[in-house]
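Can't attach files on this board, so I'm pasting raw text. These are the components:
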Amino acid sequence: MKFSLSRVLLLVTAACLLGGAAGCSRKPKGLTPLPAGQSGSAGPVGEIPLTPGNGVGTGTLGGPGNGTGTDTPGSTGLPSDLDARNFVQDREKFATDTVYFDFDKSNVKPQYAPNIPRVADYLKANTSNNLLIEGHCDDRGTEEYNLALGERRALSVRDKLMSLGISGDRITTISYGKEKPAVVGNTEEAYAKNRRGVFVLLTPPASVR
Amino acid sequence: MKTGFLSAPLARTAAVILSVTLSILATAQDGGVTITKGAVRTIPISVTGYSDEVRKILEFDLFVVGFEVNSGAAPQYRLAGSGQGEVRGALSDVNTQQVLFSRAYPGGSPRAQAHALANDVVKSLLQIPGIAGSKIAFRNLPGGRNARGELISEIWASDCDGANAVALTSDGSISFGPSWVPGQLKLFYTSFRGSRPEIYLQDLRSGSRTRVFSFPGTSSSPAVSPDGSKVVMVLSRGGSPDLWLANVDGSGLRQLTTTKELEASPCWSPDGRTICFTSAEGGRPSLYTMPASGGAMKRLNTGGVTQCTEPDWSPDGQWIAFTRAAGEFTIYVMPANGGSAEAKAAGEDPSWSPNSRTLVFTRRVGGERRLSLLDVPSKHVKDLGCISGGCSQASWSK
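---
Top answer:
Structure tokens for the assembled complex are below.
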């Protein structure tokens, strides 16, 4: 494992900042294991070396049976295997059709219900296009819960589109929880703008003019 | 062969020792720390004769298991030694003048020597393993967004006092929910680096990682069974965010919950038989359990506390810590079979120490997230400090 100098410096600095509470008044040197067995201590006292992630994971799949993309999609109401990464993404097309949610709710509110048929009509008229729905949350709620809640919101919007006759095969979802806020801030107004479902039009690359 | 922080036999011994210890402490006439509510006591101890560096490490390690170090209160125990050259320590009972141990800690860094001494004090006086030597993994939000508009977060790991921090990812994307493989230097986590959430397994010795789960929709909150063989996680490929179980190599995937509402934040009982998690099935987030082999969800009685999320089961099996996600978030601890839950500290996302005594959790300070340790019996809280930008989702190695 090779380290660049800047990376080592960064890590050393970060370690010192983090270690402040424990009295990191020196450079954290080395990762020397304490010789074992010289004390009655419970458990090996570790300065166990960790290797910084190389960040170049090749994305090797975990072997047979990992289930990537073998389910029957769509018609059962299950999320499709549509992969938004294989399409050109247009975030402007339905920018004014974003739907907003109440706190900790995933149902589409009546005032945003008319947005759904507009999106559905476009998809009906443009059969080569598909759709990505992003679900988002406000800064309240815990991080993990919000990641699930954002998905629940996106799937709720997807259900509405399917009830209007759009095949589930054409719609995929992603949740960002509170990790991609529209507005930064801890006001009621910011919260309301962040609890949202966003439509992203997907166009096959070959058909982009 | 596992290469753990605590060997499996040692961990089992620790669990046995701890359960015995709790009953002893509950009846102690003086000294010790009572577990009962309202009568929490701390142990005053004097620590003298060390360099600043060693003394600070000793103070930290002892404070987060309920000791009051050099607090001005009449000390019950005295730890005297030398931080010049190798660390030495002589622990004595102030009242009886009895010397409980006297040891030297040659070799290694002063930091490692101090931690080893602290662990010996903890073992001698509390009859539980110390936490020095264990690791925490967490996410850091350095600030800023990537080209996709995501708030960037990366996975880090450090010693449990925050020292020796190492960045484990540098993807410039969302990194989420690190979770240790018990007894191994390996982490599962979710990464958005591939433009959608996928679950990775990273080896912290080699730095290499494998993408184990990749599905449409959400993939989050992996939690590995105590025996290291299975992982439970939240996937939405069944039509809503549900719990799914698989082998750690990605094989044998199957669905555990089938509710219309969301499930989140699964954790394991230490015997590997039961999974505890959050579900919104009842309208508001509540805690449930179910057999890890599948079966019916059963709502946990949280003693009238609502909006319950992020459960974590103590390694000794006795307690479940969780977050009350309402107003200012609060850490609660209750018996594992439910019942009366006690508020412990303002914060969220608790993770138990290997000795089932201390929690690492997230505190919000001025809008920024910080990691802190909470000693459950004494309610001592100690910030770990943080690298720039905020930290959250700490997971304590087991």
